[in-house]
Amino acid sequence: MSIADNLKQYKSEVGSDGVKLIAVSKTQSVESILEAYNAGQRIFGENHVQEMVDKQAQLPNDIEWHLIGHLQSNKVKYIAPFVKLIHGVDSLKLLQEINKQAAKNKRLIDCLLQVYIADEDTKFGLGFDEVIELLRAEALAELKNIRIVGLMGIATNTKNEKQITTEFHELKVFFEGIKVSFFRKDDAFKEISTGMSADYKIAIEEGSTMVRIGSSIFGKRVIKHFKNDITTN
């Protein structure tokens, strides 16, 4: 099946639940992304900063770019002029840097707090108690150029669907508590970004509003690795 055919399948399946489809375009060529764009896709997710910067310069301006990988503070400045949503925010320090760079660009940048829900040491994210501590911080109220619009989580990489379901469910329950406690009057706080190719159906059942699908749309492709290309100045 073509990229367009794959997209049509996922859009019909995901869209019927009111869930946003993020086409994960990391390691995919500009041509492949353009094929998806011409098939109607507008939201694309990248893991690495320079890869997203390079592609953004070559592709249509109405694309909504999401940074879904782990973001270092010293690289925020490169994506601040255009990024729509940063998924993996895991510290007040990072929020402060995003706010600083957003202000320089006269923008408001939406962010998701990444919550650690997996039973794996390799995953990033805040513990439930750390999310609450961050939201209570006086310094957070000073940040006028960022907006926290929800939570993001990555489940354990396992075939145990019961475990995945439990992890996603716990995040949904936590989201609802955070909404009541901190964002009761904030309509923008509404997103739960969970679910990838292997577990998106479970994620949607457990309240996800965004799913991240990559190789199932584009097929497998490996190109230049961008992770360390941008300098750390």
From TrEMBL:
InterPro entries: Ala_racemase_N (IPR001608), PLP-binding_barrel (IPR029066), PyrdxlP_homeostasis (IPR011078). Gene3D superfamilies: Alanine racemase. It comes from the Bacteria. The modification N6-(pyridoxal phosphate)lysine is found at K26. One of its GO terms (molecular function) is pyridoxal phosphate binding. Residues 3-220 form the Alanine racemase N-terminal domain. Keywords: Pyridoxal phosphate. Its cofactor is pyridoxal 5'-phosphate. Belongs to the pyridoxal phosphate-binding protein YggS/PROSC family. Pyridoxal 5'-phosphate (PLP)-binding protein, which is involved in PLP homeostasis. This is Pyridoxal phosphate homeostasis protein. The lineage of its organism: Bacteria, Pseudomonadati, Bacteroidota, Sphingobacteriia, Sphingobacteriales.
